[in-house]
Amino acid sequence: MCQLLGMNCNVPTDICFSFEGFCERGGNTDRHQDGWGIAFFEGKAYRSFIDTKPSSESPVAQMVKNYPIKSLNTIAHIRQATIGAVELSNTQPYQREAWGLNWIFAHNGDLWNYNPIIKGKFQPVGTSDSERAFCTIMNTLAAKYPDCPPPLKQLYKELEEICAPIAEYGTLNFLLSNGQLLFARCSTLLYYVIRQAPFNEAHLIDKDMSVDFTHLTGDNDRVAVIATQPLTNNEAWTKFEKHQLIAFKDGQPVEFD
To answer: Which among 1, 44, 74, 237 has the fewest CB atoms less than 10 Å away?
Structure first.
C-alpha cells in the first residue's frame, strides 16, 4: 500500500511543512521505499517531480522541501510497489490532458486482476493497476463528454459511478485534480484537516518539527490537507467514511444540494 498527500487552498500556498513529514514515511518512519512523486498546479500549467529512490533519501525530494512552490492544488505520492516494477513509468502522480486542462491522479491501494480493455485516447504508459484505473476514469468521462467537462455536481456523480465497479477489484483510495479543485476518494483510509483562522502551531508526527501558521498566513487564508494518515499530532483530523468521495475547492469540502 502507498501513501497519499494532497493540498487544496483558496490562495496559493506552499506544502513544505506537510511534505517534510510526509517524506519521512518513504523509507524512514514507514516502509514505502519504491519511489515518490509530487505535482503542483500553477494556473493551468503544472510542474512535477518523480524519483524511484525512497523519498526520505531522495535528493530530488530534498530540493522540493527547500523550494516553496505556491499552488492552489498539490498532489503527492509515496510508493510501496505491489503491481508493476519499480521504475519511473510506474511512479505517481500521473498526468493526462482533457478539455484543455491537466488532470493529475495518484492512487493508494491494490486492484488485483484489474485488466480492463482500455478504449479511448488515454492509454497506460507503465504497468501499474493505478494507471489503468486513471485511464479508465478519463476515457469514460471523455466518451460521455467529448467537448467539455460536466459541471462540478455532475462530475462528482460521474466519478462516484465510474469508481464503484473499479473499487470491486480491491482498494481505490485516490486524489484527482484538474487545477480548479481536488477530488479525494476513500476506500479504506484517508483523513483531512482544514487550516484556517484562528491559526495555531502544528507539530509533525514523523519529524520533530513545528510551525506556527499565525506568522505565515493571512486572516482569510484557508488550506485543506488530505493524507492517508494524519501528519500532525495536535490538529483535529477528520477521517473519511469508507467509499466516500469529497470534492475540495477553496480549501474546504464542497457541499452539494
So the answer is: 44
Average pLDDT over residues 100-105: 98
Ramachandran class of 170: left when φ > 0, alpha when ψ lies in -120 to 50, beta otherwise: left
Catalytic, out of 2, 135, 163, 186: 2
Q: Identify the bridge partners of residue 210 per DSSP, sorted by sequence position.
A: 203
Of 2, 54, 26, the residue nearest 190 (C-alpha): 2
Give the pLDDT score at 31.
Answer: 79
Give the pairing of strands 244-249 and 252-253. Answer: antiparallel
Query: Which amino acid, residue 101?
Result: L
Question: How much of the chain exceeds pLDDT 90, in percent?
Answer: 88
* 127 neighbors 84 (Cβ within 8 angstroms): yes
Closest CA to 246 of 192, 180, 207, 168: 192
* Mean pLDDT, range 116-129, rounded to an integer: 95
C-alpha distances (whole Å) from 113 to each of 80, 132, 207 are 18, 11, 37
Query: Strand runs (DSSP E) across 69-198, as ranges?
Result: 71-78, 94-98, 101-108, 173-177, 182-186, 191-196
DSSP 181: -
Q: Domain ranges in the chain?
A: 3-253
- Please give the mean pLDDT across all residues of the chain: 94
Residue 257 has pLDDT above 80, yes or no: no
The set of cell numbers assigned to 202 is: 502544528
- pLDDT band per the 50, 70, 90 thresholds, residue 196: very high
Annotation: CATH topology of 3-253: Glutamine Phosphoribosylpyrophosphate, subunit 1, domain 1 (3.60.20)
Are the C-beta atoms of residues 136 and 191 closer than 8 Å to each other? no
2 is catalytic: yes
